[in-house]
Amino acid sequence: MAIYGQEGTVGPLADLDIRAYRHVLEHGSTSPDALALALGVSTREAETTVANLLRDRLLTSVPGSDGLLTAVSPRTAAAELVGEEEDALRRRLAELDRTRARLTALNPLYEAAGQRRGEVGGIDVIDSRDRVMTLISDAAGRCVHECLTVQPGGGRPAGHLERALPRDLALISRGVRMRTLYQHTARYSPPTQEYAAKVIAAGGEIRTLGELFGKMIIFDRETAFLPVWDNPHAGVVLREPSAVAFLCSVFGTAWSLAEPFATSYSSFTANALRTTIAKMLADGSKDEVIARKLGMSLRTCRRHISEMMEELGATSRFQAGYLLSACSPAAAPVEPPSTRAATGP
To answer: Can you tell me the distance from the alpha carbon of 112 to that of 210, in angstroms, rounded to the nearest whole number?
Structure first.
């Protein structure tokens, strides 16, 4: 049994309550005054303990006695205290299951109509962010095996992380394997560091890469959520098995190349970030493109490029990219962030 705190939260029985319950079990029946004497506590403490046990149905008054109390079986107490509410909850859950089954029974009709219109089966475009989030929450609630997430763009906004943390911790607590990919630049974001520390401590796995292929979430290798390229408030729900399997394969390849997330400074991450920038420079990418793909600000990106050119004595961005690409990452050390301006990685 449990007791309820001042705001309705459930906690374990207090030690004095357990001692009192044990004493009543051993002596058959007792009064609050006798209980106080036997336990060596004040009358007021004994009365509070008795009130707790009466509330939890673990004690009951002896009929026809003058204030004597006797113990009740914990199973009986639980049935009296939560049985009615538990039955109501079961009925409600059964009703929700019937509603879901009644609606999803129409899926074949919906998919057949889409095929007649030339649409690809297993793909839904949702034009409302609220509906997308509702579908994600529903899929997360039914996920039982694995959740794969890709979050490009550097550190995530603190508000997004605060909303995601309870859902993600709930997934992990149910035994779901949770793997998340970020970009290297996310390591320099305090909110993302805090979120990652909590998720990793709970058993989640987080890794980073210099460049990612796009945002997505996949539940149980059955349902994938993707962004709509020209509408940030919309989303694509993908259930076609072959397409979802392909996305899982792409995720697996990126995961094998990624580095485990660490909140402390990592020379590997700094060098990997530098190598990615060098490759993009050698390919002729513009500063704006590099910054966007690596999830960093344009100012920070240009600072990195300027430092690289200065160190190498390069006279052009292409020459700097070529020289850096020709060198191993270890040959081009990067000073720790603590010695740099506080503008990001």
So the answer is: 42
Phi and psi, residue 246, nearest 5°: -65, -45
Phi-psi region of 344 (alpha: psi -120 to 50; beta: other; left: phi over 0): left
SS (H, E, C) 176-223: CEEEEEEEHHHHHCHHHHHHHHHHHHHCCEEEEECCCCCCEEEECCCE
Q: How far apart are the first and last CA of the chain?
A: 52
Domains 2-72 and 267-339 share a fold: yes
Residue 12's H or E segment, with its range, is: strand 10-12
For 109-260, CATH number? 3.30.870.10
Both tokens of residue 299? Answer: 């100012």
d(CA 284, CA 281): 5
Higher model confidence: residue 2 or residue 20?
A: 20
Eight-class DSSP state of 168: H
Whole-model pTM: value is 0.53
Are the CB atoms for 59 and 32 separated by under 8 Å? no
Thinking of the domain 267-339, which architecture would CATH place it in? Answer: Orthogonal Bundle (1.10)
User: Is 53 in contact with 45 (CB distance < 8 Å)?
Assistant: no
Quick one: which of 20, 240, 28 has its CA closest to 124?
240
Encode pLDDT of 123-164 as tens digits: 888 888 888 888 888 888 889 999 999 998 777 888 888 888
Average pLDDT in the 84-94 region? 83
Res 172 pLDDT > 60: yes
Class at the top of the CATH hierarchy for domain 2-72: mainly alpha
